[in-house]
Amino acid sequence: MRPQSGLPLRIKDAALNVTNLFDKEVTNLFDKEYVSGCSGVLVCGYGDARTVTFKLSRKW
Predict the structure, then answer these.
(1) Is residue 19 a contact partner of residue 58, using CB atoms and an 8 Å limit?
(2) CB-side neighbour CA atoms (13 Å) of 6
(3) Whole-model pTM over 0.70
(4) pLDDT digits 0-9 by tens, 12-21
């Protein structure tokens, strides 16, 4: 069976609107160690480490 070629492709009044959205969020960029809070004299907690989040989305 031979593939068909030369078929006309017709698109009339078509519009494509694509929007790419890129979002980034960085916290504690230099990864510094710090105390985020204390609930007593000897009870303290450290803050979060470096966090990098990327988000890429597309709207049609």
Answers:
(1) yes
(2) 1
(3) no
(4) 665 666 677 8
Closest CA to 47 of 31, 57, 56, 36: 36
What gap in Å lies between CA 32 and CA 26, rounded to an integer? 13
Q: Is 36 left (phi over 0), alpha (psi -120 to 50) or beta?
A: alpha
As a whole number of angstroms, the distance between CA 15 and CA 32 comes to 49
Q: Residue 49 — φ and ψ, nearest 5°?
A: -75, 180
pLDDT over threshold 80, residue 11: no
Look up tokens 């069976």; give the residue: 1
Quickly state the pLDDT bin for 22 (edges 50, 70, 90): confident
> What's the average model confidence in pLDDT over 39-45?
88
